[in-house]
Specification:
- Two copies of one chain form a homodimer.
- By secondary structure, chain A is α/β, with parallel strands linked by helices.
- Chain A folds into two domains: about 240 residues, 3-Layer(aba) Sandwich (Alkaline Phosphatase, subunit A), CATH 3.40.720.10; about 150 residues, no CATH class.
- Chain A is about 35% helix and about 20% strand.
- Chain A has 14 helices and 13 strands.
- In chain A, the strands form two sheets. Chain A has a seven-stranded mixed beta sheet, with helices on both faces. In chain A, strands 4, 5, 6, 7 and 8 form a five-stranded antiparallel beta sheet that branches.
- At the A-B interface, β3 and α3 of A face β12, α14 and β13 of B.
- β3 of chain A pairs parallel with β13 of chain B, so a sheet runs across the interface.
C-alpha cells in the first residue's frame, strides 16, 4: 500500500512583483508554516497548463488532477451545475443562469436588473426554480435549479442537443434579452438554440405573476421574472478519478466551480454550510474536514478560494492577510497532524492572480512537496522566486499527479 | 490595451566555456546594461527549439515568433528570396543562387570560381540579372534577382512545381555544375528539376557573351557567366503575425535570412542602407529604428547578427567586442528610452554559436524579461550560467511569445 496524498491549493495564490511594494504578496506575507513546508521538502515551479497559457481555476484543477484540459474541459455550464448539486450526465448540455428583472417592450424582454436585486435563496429562489421546473414544458427533459444568490443552472437532457449556442445574457441593463443562436452548422445547435429561447419565454410567463414576485413588487423590490442562460457546455464521458489513478479521492472546496470539477470526476465532494468559497469561509473547519476525508480516502485536494478573490480585487494587503490566514488555519494544522511517513503533502496554486493585473495570468506557480523521503533542497521560503532554485526545477501541472503518486509509491515501472 | 513588446536578439550570442580563457564570451564581456536588465527582471534559460536541436537562425526565429519550425519552415531559398525583396507566394519554389565562373568542356560546364571573383552589385549583377529575366524563356513564370554581393535568388511560379530537387552548386571549383535531380517520386519534382537544368543552360547562354562579362575578361576578371541554384524551398501558407498574435509586428534586421522571416509572416521589415547584417552595421541607427518602429507597432524584434559572425570565426576577442558594442549601442539605448509600465523588454539569443565550435549548437540560451511587474529574482549577471538560477527556470522558445503576451496582458483566459 502506498502513502496517501494531500494537495493544498491556494487559489490564485501566486503573483508578480508589485512595483510600489517591491515584492510579491507571498514574499510580503508572514507564512511560517508554508516556509517550513518548503524547508522540509522539495520545491520548484509549475506551469499549471503550459508556459504562456492563462488558466481558469477549472482548467487548472483538471490539469492538477491529471486530466488534460484541452481534451476534457466541458465549459463552465456543466461544472457550475455539478457544483450546485444538479446531476449532469455525459451528453447533457448545461448553462449557468441568472435570475433577472425584465420588462416587456414591443414584444422584447428588456433587462432592467441582471441580478434581480441580488435575490437570494432566502428570498425564494428555490420556490421560483420549482415553479419553472414544474410548469415549463419543453421538447426535451430538463432540470432548472437555483444556485448561490441570484444564480441558477439549467441542464438539458436528450439526443440531438449541442453546446454550440450563444448566451442570452446581454451583460448590460437596458438591453433586450439576446436571442440564443447556433454557432455551428450542426442541426443540433439550431434545435438547442430554439429550445433555450422557448425556455426563456416560458419561464418568463411562469415567473412574471408568481406570488413571490407579486410580493417583491409590493415591497418595491425588482421581481425575479426572467432567467438568462449563458456559458453552454456539454459534459464529455471521462474516466473517473479512482479509475484513472487507482485511489479514492475527495475535493474539499467552497467554490461551486471547484466542487463541480470534483463531481465531474466522480470524487467525494462534501457539503458544509460553513465552507462558502468566499472570504467568510470557516477555514479551520475546512482543515478538519480535509483531515477527516484523508482518513477515508487515499487522495484529498483542498482549495482555498479567498486568496484568488483578493487578487481579482487588486488588494495587495487583503491578499497578504488571506495568505497568512491560510498559513495559520490550514497549512499549520496539516503540518501538526500529518505523518510524513504515511502522507505526501503538496502545497501549490492553480494559477497566478497578480494584484497588478486583477485576473489570472500564465506565470508559473510555486510548489512544495513534503514526505519523509522527498529530496530536501536549501530553499527556505515559499514564494515565487525562492522556489525557482529548488530541486524540482520547472515542470507541467499535468504531470503533478504522477509526481505525487511516484512519491507515494503508487506508480508502475515502465520497462524492467 | 496591453503593453507593447520589444525583443532584442543577439544572434548566436550564447556560447560555451572556452577552456583556455576559463569562461564564456558573455562572462568575459563588460555588459553593464545587459546585467541591469537581468537585475531588474526575470531571468532563465530557453531552448530555442528543444534540447539537443541545433537551430538555424531562421528556424529559431520562427520559434521565437511563435511558429513551430517543424511545421512551417520553408527552407532557405524562399527566405533568402523574401529577404532580397523578391515576392514569394505560397506554392512558389525558390532557390538561393551564386553568380559563378564556368568553362565549357566536353559539353559540361566546369566551375572555375563559385563566386565569380566575388562580383558585387556595383560591378553589374543587377544588369546581368535583368538580362537573364528578359532573355531566358521557361515553361513556367519565374523571377531571377541579384542579392548581396555574388548572391542571387530564383523564384519559380506556377502549378506542378516541387521543392524536392537537388542543388546545382558542386560546392568546389574544378567540378562540373551538378545536374539537378528530383529527390522524390512526385512527377512535379521531375518536372522542376528539368526546368532548373534548362534555366542553368539558358542563363549561361545569355551571360556568356554579355557586355559586362566581355569587359570583365578584358580586365582579367572572372566572368559571371553561370548561375548555381541551391537550397530549393517552397513557401507554405501560414497565418501572418498580426492574425496569429493580434499585434502589428516589425522585424529590424540586416541579415536577409531574418528579414525573410519577417516578410514571410507579413511583418513590417524596414530597409536601411546603414544596417547591413554584418560587423560594419550601424547599430545606433538600428536602435533608433527599433524605437521608431515601437511607436507604430505593438511588437518589434531587433536582430544583431555580428555576434554570430564572430562565433562562426571562432574569434573570442571579437565576440566579446561585439557583445560590448551591443550592450552600449543597443541595450543601453533601450534601457534609457523604454517605459516599463508600457513595454515588455526581452533580451535573448536565437541560439548558441560557441567560438570553440564555430557553428550553431543546441545549448540553451539566456533570457531576461523586464516590465514593471515582472517577478524579480536575485540574478545580477546576464550570462549562460547566472541566469540558470533565475525565476523563469528553463522553457521552450516556442512558448516565448505567449509568455511575453501574458506579461503584456494580451492573452485570453482558458476556462473560468
Amino acid at each position: 500500500m502506498g502513502k496517501r496524498i494531500l494537495v493544498l491549493v491556494g487559489d490564485g495564490m501566486a503573483d508578480r512583483f508589485e512595483p510600489d511594494r517591491g515584492e510579491t504578496p507571498l514574499q510580503a506575507a508572514d507564512v511560517p508554516n508554508m516556509d517550513e513546508l518548503a524547508r522540509r521538502g522539495s520545491t520548484g515551479l509549475m506551469d499549471p497548463i503550459r508556459p504562456g497559457v492563462r488558466p481558469g481555476s477549472d482548467t487548472a484543477h483538471l490539469a492538477l488532477l491529471g486530466y488534460d484540459p484541452f481534451k476534457v474541459y466541458p465549459g463552465r455550464g456543466p461544472l457550475e451545475a455539478l457544483g450546485a448539486g444538479v446531476e449532469v450526465r455525459p451528453g447533457d448540455v448545461a448553462f449557468r443562469c441568472n435570475f433577472a428583472t425584465v420588462r416587456r417592450e414591443d414584444g422584447d424582454l428588456i433587462v432592467e436588473d441582471r441580478r434581480a436585486g441580488r435575490i437570494s435563496e432566502k428570498e425564494g429562489t428555490p420556490e421560483l426554480a420549482r415553479a419553472v421546473n414544474e410548469e415549463v414544458d419543453l421538447p426535451v427533459e430538463f432540470e432548472f435549479r437555483e444556485a448561490v444568490g441570484h444564480r441558477a443552472v439549467l441542464v438539458l437532457r436528450g439526443d440531438g442537443l449541442s453546446a454550440d449556442v450563444t448566451d442570452a445574457d446581454p451583460k448590460r441593463p437596458g438591453r433586450p434579452v439576446k436571442e440564443v443562436k447556433p454557432t455551428s452548422d450542426d442541426p443540433a445547435a439550431e434545435r438547442t438554440a430554439e429550445i433555450v429561447n422557448e425556455f426563456i419565454r416560458r419561464a418568463h410567463e411562469v415567473l412574471e405573476n408568481h406570488p413571490i414576485n407579486e410580493e417583491r413588487r409590493k415591497r418595491g423590490l425588482p421581481p425575479a421574472n426572467a432567467i438568462l442562460p449563458r456559458g453552454a457546455g456539454r459534459l464529455r464521458r471521462v474516466e473517473g478519478f479512482e479509475e484513472r489513478h487507482g485511489m479514492s479521492g475527495a475535493v474539499v472546496a467552497g467554490a461551486s466551480l471547484i466542487k463541480g470539477i470534483g463531481r465531474m470526476l466522480d470524487m467525494t465532494v462534501p457539503e458544509d454550510e460553513g465552507i462558502t468559497g468566499r472570504k467568510d469561509t470557516d477555514l479551520r473547519r475546512k482543515a478538519e474536514l480535509a483531515l477527516r476525508c484523508l482518513e477515508e480516502h487515499e487522495f484529498v485536494l483542498v482549495n482555498f478560494n479567498a486568496v484568488d478573490e483578493m487578487g481579482h480585487d487588486g488588494d495587495f494587503r487583503g491578499k497578504v492577510e488571506m495568505l497568512e490566514r491560510m498559513d495559520r488555519e490550514l497549512v499549520g494544522r496539516i503540518l501538526d497532524e500529518v505523518d510524513p511517513s504515511e502522507v505526501v503533502v503538496c502545497l501549490t496554486a492553480d494559477h497566478s492572480t497578480p494584484v497588478t493585473v486583477g485576473d489570472h495570468t500564465a506565470d508559473p506557480v510555486p510548489v512544495a512537496i513534503w514526505t519523509d523521503d522527498a529530496r530536501r533542497d536549501d530553499v527556505e521560503r515559499f514564494d515565487e522566486v525562492s522556489v525557482a532554485r529548488g530541486c524540482l526545477g520547472r515542470f507541467p501541472g499535468l504531470r503533478l499527479m504522477d509526481v505525487l503518486k511516484d512519491l507515494a509509491d503508487r506508480l508502475e515501472k515502465f520497462g524492467a
